[in-house]
Amino acid sequence: MISTYPMRRREIITMNLRVWQVLEAFPPLGSSTGSEIRAELDRILQEPDINKDIKERFNGGWRERILSHMRKSSHRCLQEIMEMAEGVEFLDENEVQNRCIMAGLPFLLFDTKKYTMSCSKSFWIRAKSEDEDKVLDDLINLTKSPRLLSTGNLTDIDELCLAAEGMVICQFRPANILNAVVTLLGSYYVFNMEFPKGASGVEKALFLFLEHIFIGQCSANLPLTVENLVSDLMV
Q1: How far apart are CA 170 and CA 151, in angstroms?
Q2: Is the pTM of this model over 0.85?
Q3: pLDDT at position 113, please?
Q4: Which domain of life is it from (predicted)?
Q5: What is the pLDDT confidence band of residue 111, given thresholds at 50, 70 and 90?
Q6: How crowded is the C-beta side of 6, counted as CA atoms within 13 Å?
Q7: Which residues of 192-205 are buried (b: 16+ CB within 10 A; e: fewer)?
């Protein structure tokens, strides 16, 4: 994959290939764990181990800042999420807290009545139904741009996958949410796709925030909501 990278990158960009066409032409990018997408992100960003750098950047400051803001929030949805994040004894507490951070970001970023978001508009969609498998299949079929989809709850995820254009690209077993989010961001780079805008730019703002804190991209035109949250987190 390293030796064929220049040709592959040129073909993806110039031919504007669909996700399924990229995976058909370059099957390793559809590896079951998403490892090759993360490796391709290394090559695109010209970083030796961006996955490691992202985790160090996140764990080195952003993680605790976000958790602190979520704990202080009066948003009902965030309060319910944070109840799951504290004092988990039967599972890795850090992993559960990371899941709660990712689940709570839409409410933290848009903590007003005007922009209150449901999970269905997030980068991570969690199936909630008695028949979660059927709901998950339906969600997969409805995907256009890359999304994380899962079944189960935040403390006990049954399935966690990356899907786009009605197909599963990879699955994460065990369900490590940081690996999943890095792979999600990487998929937009690898498949040369723009972040979805969504109503009033809400979805794009979420992706830009993730890109900012994880990859360190500093866009000159960050949405005001993202700039405000980043400023609040740095206080």
Answers
A1: 15
A2: yes
A3: 46
A4: Eukaryota
A5: low
A6: 1
A7: bbebbebeeebbbb
